């Protein structure tokens, strides 16, 4: 028990306090002197336009991504529940993107959505829809990036919902059938309420992961500046840029503290308002 | 949609329902197939592109006209691919073993022993899940630079893997699983004079195989694909992992699509194999661990 406890203290808790302390200094890894600046890093944040943009983008990713992957994941899981043969095969097929390295997936995405030679635009032209610029357009890059994340997470979401659905006792459906309930009635009255714990889990963990979005964004653009005109910049990417690109470690630490506060508040609110106790 | 069909969702072990080929089942297959094609398209594109010759790369055909393994041999002979692959295998492998051992030990202790402060320990471990990685990375980096670990062989590997050696998520998963084991079993072994560690190792652990399988795959996957921390902490090219190595392909070699697609396809193989073999245990593990609530 001692080793794991020390591990959690040294690797998780101690650094949290170190980050809090660093955020009060004009800390720079490359310099000798690290002057104390109090709340200056935080007041700079309020006036920082790029940080504001990163914050809005991160919110947009979360608002698009979390509901999209939950709804699509639930539909696929329900359909999988309806079939007998090949269930395992389909499950594995939908899981494949989840095991694809993010870096590899990002390369493929760039290729697929490339304005000049991308198969997606070829398909659009075939449908008589004008080709789009996707990742090179400031207005479409964020949505295209979000699509990549949803595509990658779908497999895990499906497995999670299959597990949740399997935990619902089949006697409920049998009882509903005897009472003459229709299919959609038993979905809204039985499946969805009893799936609530799984949905809460997905919303909470999904939100936390979208709030920390980094790898996909950086690999779709090869820069730490965040896509065309900063249109895909996220908070995590901005932290990386500040800390390891410009060595403004103190300022970057202040951003991490703000991110931590945001995650904490949103998680607590979600747990408070989404959790419904279902007794059975 | 009839309710009888609905109940099939419930369990996979129910007796087979009467064979009925109604239009709804057909529709379900149809939707799933279309969905799977859309989902797999990028995946297929990656593999097919890796088989195209340089001249063919920018042609828009789906199938390679003259499939070649040239990209693969080039990746293996002209880049450090094998080194990166080995590094990733080592790091993901060691981390997974460490997580399996420590997380099951802690999970077992939290589930089956009474001691003061037990709940506080559990809640503190869980609360670490909410601390964003970005927040920890800066102090970690300052720490490993201070003790000069980054350029030596064991030091660099240790720096890359230390944050993942124990996972709070895994502790939670294993605790849920051990709680479902009957206490009588442990009591009986104790009366037979087995040591506490022996009970854990020989009796409890073999009974939680599905949980171990799902924890193993998710830990391996997470570390195999880890990007942010390795990108920051790796200073020398020979310590690069697969994701970092392939990501830096672009800057160093120009955009060589064929090579990138070949490297990416090779990187997928180990995880896909593990999932194919263990998918039953993984899903069972998630079902039984109370992730459902």
UniProtKB/TrEMBL annotation, chain B:
This is Carbohydrate ABC transporter permease. It comes from the Bacteria. Residues 85-278 form the ABC transmembrane type-1 domain. The chain crosses the membrane at residues 26-48, 89-108, 120-143, 155-178, 257-278. SUPFAM superfamilies: MetI-like (SSF161098). Keywords: Cell membrane, Membrane, Transmembrane, Transmembrane helix, Transport. Its main location: membrane. InterPro entries: MetI-like, MetI-like_sf. It is found in: Cell membrane. Gene3D superfamilies: MetI-like. It is a multi-pass membrane protein. PROSITE patterns: ABC_TM1. One of its GO terms (cellular component) is plasma membrane. Belongs to the binding-protein-dependent transport system permease family. GO terms for biological process: transmembrane transport.
């Amino acid at each position: 028990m001692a080793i794991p406890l020390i591990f959690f203290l040294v690797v998780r808790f101690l650094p949290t306090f170190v980050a809090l302390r660093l955020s009060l200094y004009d800390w720079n890894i490359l310099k000798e002197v690290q002057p104390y600046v109090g709340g200056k890093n935080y007041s700079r944040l309020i006036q920082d336009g790029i940080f504001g943009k990163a914050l809005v983008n991160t919110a947009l990713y979360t608002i698009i991504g979390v509901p999209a992957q939950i709804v699509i994941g639930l539909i696929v899981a329900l359909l999988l529940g309806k079939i007998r043969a090949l269930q395992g095969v389909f499950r594995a097929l939908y899981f494949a993107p989840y095991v694809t390295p993010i870096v590899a997936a990002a390369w493929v995405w760039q290729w697929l959505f490339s304005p000049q030679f991308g198969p997606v635009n070829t398909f659009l032209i075939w449908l008589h829809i004008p080709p789009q610029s996707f990742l090179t357009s400031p207005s479409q890059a964020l949505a295209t990036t979000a699509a990549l994340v949803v595509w990658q997470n779908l497999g895990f979401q499906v497995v999670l919902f299959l597990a949740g659905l399997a935990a619902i006792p089949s006697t409920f459906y049998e009882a509903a059938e005897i009472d003459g309930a229709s299919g959609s009635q038993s979905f809204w009255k039985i499946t969805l309420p009893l799936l609530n714990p799984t949905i809460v889990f997905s919303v909470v963990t999904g939100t936390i992961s979208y709030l920390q979005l980094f790898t996909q964004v950086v690999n779709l653009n090869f820069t730490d500046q965040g896509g065309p005109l900063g249109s895909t910049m996220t908070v995590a990417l901005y932290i990386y840029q500040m800390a390891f690109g410009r060595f403004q470690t103190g300022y970057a630490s202040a951003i991490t503290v703000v991110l931590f506060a945001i995650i904490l508040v949103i998680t607590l609110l979600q747990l408070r308002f989404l959790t419904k106790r279902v007794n059975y | 949609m009839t309710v009888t069909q609905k109940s099939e969702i419930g369990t996979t072990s129910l007796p087979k329902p009467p064979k009925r080929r109604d239009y709804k089942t057909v529709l379900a297959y149809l939707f799933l197939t279309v969905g799977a094609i859309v989902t797999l398209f990028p995946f297929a594109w990656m593999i097919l592109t890796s088989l195209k010759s340089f001249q063919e790369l920018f042609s828009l055909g789906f199938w390679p006209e003259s499939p070649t393994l040239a990209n693969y041999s080039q990746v293996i002979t002209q880049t450090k691919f094998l080194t990166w692959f080995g590094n990733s295998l080592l790091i993901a492998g060691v981390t997974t073993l460490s997580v399996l051992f420590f997380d099951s030990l802690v999970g077992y202790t939290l589930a089956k022993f009474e001691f003061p402060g037990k709940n506080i320990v559990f809640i503190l471990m869980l609360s670490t899940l909410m601390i964003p990685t970005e927040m920890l990375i800066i102090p970690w980096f300052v720490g490993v630079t201070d003790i000069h670990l980054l350029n030596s062989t064991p030091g660099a590997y240790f720096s890359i893997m230390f944050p993942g050696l124990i996972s709070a998520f895994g502790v939670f998963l294993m605790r849920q699983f051990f709680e479902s084991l009957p206490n009588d079993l442990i009591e009986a072994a104790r009366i037979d004079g087995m040591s506490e560690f022996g009970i854990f190792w020989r009796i409890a652990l073999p009974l939680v195989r599905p949980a171990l399988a799902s924890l193993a795959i998710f830990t391996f996957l997470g570390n195999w694909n880890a990007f942010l921390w390795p990108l920051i902490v790796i200073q020398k090219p020979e310590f690069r992992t697969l994701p970092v190595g392939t990501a830096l392909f672009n800057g160093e070699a120009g955009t060589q699509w064929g090579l990138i697609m070949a490297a990416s396809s090779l990187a997928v193989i180990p995880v896909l194999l593990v999932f194919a073999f263990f998918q039953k245990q993984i899903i069972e593990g998630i079902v039984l661990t109370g992730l459902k609530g």
